[in-house]
Amino acid sequence: MADIEVSSTCEEGYTVTNVIDDEWELVVDALSEDGPSPNQVLAADYISCYIPALRVAADQTGYDDLGAVEAEVAADLDDDDDLEAVAFEIEVEADLGDDVEEIVELGEEICHVHSALQDELHAEITLHDDAF
């Protein structure tokens, strides 16, 4: 059994309903009409992983609590609508002094999404046709 299991259904068009680990439902729409696009989900997923990683990094660097954290994500797409660049603007309540860069870099090392994107992770795909 895999660590994460996702069942996805697309009845028609470009809207996909995903059930994650038989518990969570996520609707993704390539056209952003019935839900966020895959690129929007990826941007949200990235920051949703990075913020907790940043908290762990701060803790490992000697800061017990970052307090409130707010982030804005800007993602750029190329002419083919492929994700080309992502930037985070993050504000934290705590004063981190001279440790900001160290905490940011450690957060990147801890963030699983950052690691997957850096390693250029690609799915192994098996397609079964005439299945219905």
From TrEMBL:
It comes from the Archaea. InterPro entries: KH_dom-like_a/b, OsmC/Ohr_fam, OsmC/Ohrsf. This is OsmC family peroxiredoxin. The lineage of its organism: Archaea, Methanobacteriati, Methanobacteriota, Stenosarchaea group, Halobacteria. Signal peptide: none annotated.
